[in-house]
Amino acid sequence: MSHKLLIIGSMAFDKIETPFQKSDIIMGGAANYTALSAAQFGVPTAVVSVIGGDYPTSFLRLLTQRHIDISGIEIDPQDKTFYWSARYHEDMNLRDTLDTQLNVLAHFKPVVPAAFTDAQVLMLGNLHPQIQIDVLAQMTHLPFVVLDTMNYWITHTYELLEEVISKVDMITINEQEARQLTDEYSLVKAAKRILAMGTKYVVIKKGEHGALLFHEDSAFFAPALPLSEVCDPTGAGDVFAGGIVGYLTKTNDFSFENIKNAVIHGSNLASFCIESLGAERMLSLTPEDINSRLYQFRDLTQFDIKLC
Ligand code: AMP
Questions:
Q1: pLDDT-based confidence at 7, cuts 50/70/90?
Q2: Which residue range or ranges hold the Carbohydrate kinase PfkB domain (predicted)?
Q3: Ligand 1 site, CB within 6 A
């Protein structure tokens, strides 16, 4: 088994409305955001996804320029790329999906490139759970598997999603989705219910309020960096997951202690994603930007406790 990362997820056209602006149709999709984030760690990475004949090659180039293997991206010239539109509330932790058009995703049969069937880390990004199961079945060595999903799949494919959760090491899910999945309002109870479904680590994303990591009877909290302006939170969850899987692939250490670090790296990268519309900020990131913000994270969270 070698240090490789395989990412599956949607590749999309998105249309976003925030209280401050409306986008045109822009590049989106879980796989794009996750791959652009994981690319910061420089590990061999491949994406498995599907696009229509309408998907610009300039968007694909954003991946190949970062040495991401796109041989697992199927192009279906007869159909259209997945389309999603959403509107954010004044409280940008909340959004409503306005439209989901599965298009090419409705009949996608994923094929994992031969060079990545032994990847050490597998990111099962936001897609139909049957596609996630099909990819898992193609892996020749058992990787460390991280799962992400969305309200759409919880509503439409609950039983299949439960099956995937039982097969993965970690799930990242936002707080509304954790409540929808478990019918529990308390996030601690929701996490326990999800752990009982068979996964080892549960990360509950709370937008600007950070993320909670649960494992057995332990918990860890990673704050989100307080930012004065949020432009567009779209993709932050996928970028967060990309930071986790990129870091875990690079460090090859899947202990709880190291997963805490991974969650901080994910939070750090997500803090950049929300600064611009779509994936724009992810395209201009430098290692200096990333490292200086990691120090800000350290300063934000470290303190000496004095007992009195
Ligand atoms: P996030 O903001 O991290 O939850 O991710 C938003 C991205 O997920 C957008 O770029 C969408 O294109 C993509 N997306 C939205 N709904 C779905 C869905 N049902 N399946 C797969 N991807 C989706």
A1: very high
A2: 27-281
A3: 10, 12, 14, 28-30, 84, 100, 126-127, 150, 152, 234-238
Average pLDDT over residues 282-300: 95
Average pLDDT value over all residues in the chain: 96
pLDDT at residue 1 in the model: 45
3-state SS of the chain?
Answer: CEEEEEEECCCEEEEEECCCCECCCEEECHHHHHHHHHHHHCCCEEEEEEEECCCCHHHHHHHHCCCEEEEEEEEECCCCCEEEEEEECCCCCCEEEEEEECHHHHHCCCCCCHHHCCEEEEEECCCCHHHHHHHHHHCCCCCEEEEECCHHHHHHCHHHHHHHHHHCCEEEEEHHHHHHHHCCCCHHHHHHHHHHCCCCEEEEECHHHCEEEEECCEEEEECCCCCCCCCCCCCHHHHHHHHHHHHHHHHCCCCHHHHHHHHHHHHHHHHHHCCCCCCHHHHHCCHHHHHHHHHHHHHHHCCCCCCC
Q: Which two three-digit tokens encode residue 27?
A: 């590049």
pLDDT at position 137 is 97
Predicted model pTM: 0.96
Q: Which residue has the higher pLDDT, 228 or 60?
A: 60
Q: Which single residue is written with the structure tokens 């004065």?
A: 228
Q: Given pLDDT bands bounded at 50, 70 and 90, which one contains residue 2? A: low
Question: Which amino acid residue places its CA nearest to atom 11 of ligand 1?
Answer: 29
CA 281, CA 284: separation in Å to the nearest integer?
Answer: 5
From 47, 234, 239, 277, give the residue whose CB has the most ligand 1 atoms within 8 Å, as the site to mutate. 234
